[in-house]
UniProtKB/TrEMBL annotation:
Record keywords, A-Z: Hydrolase
Protein name: Agmatine deiminase
Keyword NAD listed: no
Alphabetical list of InterPro entries matching this protein: Peptidyl-Arg-deiminase_porph (IPR007466)
GO MF, one example: protein-arginine deiminase activity
Amino acid sequence: MTSKRVLPAEWAPQSAVMLTWPHPGTDWARIMDEVEPVFLNIAHQVLRFEHLVISCEFVARLQKLGQELNHFAEENGLPGRVITVPAPANDTWARDHGPITVDTGDGLTLLDFRFNAWGGKFPWEKDNALNQHLANAGVFGGHRLQSVDFVLEGGSIESDGQGTVLTTSECMLTPSRNPSMDRSAIEQLLSELLGADRILWLNHGYLAGDDTDSHIDTLARFCAPDHICYVTCPDVADEHYSALAAMEEELQEFRQKDGSPYQLTALPWPDAIHDEDGERLPATYANFLIINGAVLLPVYDVPQDQEAIRIMADIFPDREIVAINCRPLIQQHGSLHCVTMQIPAGVVTL
């Protein structure tokens, strides 16, 4: 590891956001007419601030989509433009199969970690190859795409941009990901690759209906180097109460590098949402995306949405808070942050 290597915080300047577009060959087939408008809304909002990289294996649909979105951006005088890349995909969770970009001190390198669908839960081979398709298409310019023989999803890590990484032991230590590596070995690898000189491990916290083994981006997020927002459940009768209360205690015990506690902000607990089979879905306000000048906040058409918007505006007073109804996304057990991956400034140019 070099002391200069760092994983940028999400609020660092960005060049683009990556979306892997849904198509009828994915699990979205049954509700394509519900979910595609959510992706379109995300795309429209991102283009107000930065570029978009969109991939899809339905080439005709992709070309038409790119033309429509670029026309929308030009007609509205927006700064963003769309790059489209035909590429096969099993699903749409760009946060987890997209590249993780680090600043090595000598420039930016895109790390292509292995993706195995959260420990082999679903088909994953196409998603695992997607970053190479993007690189071959020249999306990343002259920046290196480095293959890493280690399973890691972007949703499983949070960076403060200063060497501290926040994660969960439930996800990172699951044997179906990297069975030959214990906590110490994983810490060493994250130090070498991400420049992490501190790893804060949460040992509690989960959401019912979550397939990721408790990704950190559903539970707790860095808002600034000294500030963490997190999910809390006030209902003692709710199945989540004990685990999230224990997580809150852990967050209160965490310390910054200078020994001071973190500023902590609790996020609202949305009313329970269930699918048609009665399964609880993982609605969470923690799954927001920070982009240049804005925060895209998932909402779910429940009474707590307005309070979530207010709190997010307090946390990010210098950014526009853009609420996007992501109720269709949680039908497949993810939300807004899960379907997006930011790419730092200087990588994607048009």
